[in-house]
Amino acid sequence: MIAVSVVSAGAMVALGILSVAFLLTVYRVVAGPTLPDRVLALDMLVAIAIGFIAVIAIKTGFTLYIDIAISLGLVGFLATVAFARFILTQAQSNAAERVGAVQSADVAVEGRKIRRRKRKKGGR
Q: What does pTM read for this prediction?
């Protein structure tokens, strides 16, 4: 009888801690300054949801919740990988645009230097 009350009290403490972690993580999703911060916070939300499901599975004794938690973990991992891939392709396309802009600026600068040299030589 004592073991049941200890497990129940531990589950309540765990749910309280997970609730605080959930609120702090939601704040990071909303206020995250960059996209990678938000993606990491979303991944953390999945982990916290898995924690909630595990604690509820222990509290109720219904083992099907563990299968749901495992499935959520797999889906959450795939979503994080997809977000990371998206961020990587965005960074590469932005870098390519910057390189193209720098190259066109260099060509424009070189053209101006050539014109200036011709003007100086022609003035003699």
A: 0.73
Count Cα atoms within 13 angstroms, Cβ side, for 84: 9
Spatial neighbors of 59 by CB under 8 A, at least 6 apart, are 7, 8, 11
Cβ-based neighbour number of residue 84 at 10 Å: 14
Q: Are 14 and 55 in contact (CB under 8 A)?
A: yes
Residue 48 tokens, joined: 């916290």
Report how far Cα 4 is from the mean position of its chain's Cα atoms. 39
Residue 118's pLDDT is what? 55
Q: What share of the chain is helix, strand, coil (3-state, %, to 5)?
A: 95, 0, 5
> Phi and psi at residue 61, in whole multiples of 5°?
80, 10
